[in-house]
Amino acid sequence: MIKEKAISAFLEEVKPLKILLVDDDMASQFVIAKSLFNLGNNLDICSSSDEAIRRVKTFDYDLILVDLNLPVVNGFDLSKSIKYSNQNNDSSPIIFGLTGLDHPLLPILISYSDIDDYVIRSFDYSDLIGKIVNHCYLHQN
């Protein structure tokens, strides 16, 4: 708990992130939004890959959280489309995959994809918060 308070205090002093969450499950949207609430970030939520592409073309996001099991276009293909649509920009958003399946081959799939990291779904997203700090703040500065 002390470590989490220290992270929250650190994040309050730096620029808030603009985050897009792409997930078709409303319960997951709620839990993730609630977990990120204390970080003071700007969070946009959408449920489809089409809406995600429209938002990425309109807004600059620092971080995109993508459900890897989206119904029409899976998260791997959506991540590739997002990276492709941002290839003319100076900076591309960091993309985290969200999955409920912890499979031994998942790290290998992630390493060959356009996804920067992944998080296994849970009700405690301290792992997600730690990865946000690591990828979006510590590596940027």
Give the low-confidence spans: none
Helix content: 40-55%
The N- and C-terminal alpha carbons lie at a distance of 25 Å
CATH superfamily: Response regulator
What is the 3D shape? globular
Task: Give the biggest sheet.
Answer: 5 strands, parallel
Strands ordered across the widest β-sheet: 2-1-3-4-5
- Looking at the overall shape, the CATH architecture is 3-Layer(aba) Sandwich
- Helix-strand topology string: HEHEHEHEHEH
Mean pLDDT: 82
- Helix/strand class: alpha/beta
Rg of Cα set: 14 Å
CATH fold-level name = Rossmann fold
The level 1 CATH classification is Alpha Beta
Q: Total helix count?
A: 6
Classify the oligomer: single chain
Q: Number of domains in the coordinates? A: 1
Secondary structure tally: strands: 5
Keywords, separated by commas or semicolons:
alpha/beta; Rossmann fold
Characterization of this structure:
The chain has 141 residues and is of the alpha/beta class. The chain has a single domain (2-131), classed as 3-Layer(aba) Sandwich (Rossmann fold). It has six helices and five strands; from the N terminus they run αβαβαβαβαβα. The protein has helices at residues 2-12, 26-36, 49-58, 75-85, 106-111, 126-138, and strands at 18-22, 42-46, 63-67, 94-99, 117-120. Helix 3 (49-58) packs parallel to helix 4 (75-85). The longest helix is centred in the last third of the chain and has 13 residues, at 126-138. The radius of gyration is 14 Å and the shape is globular.
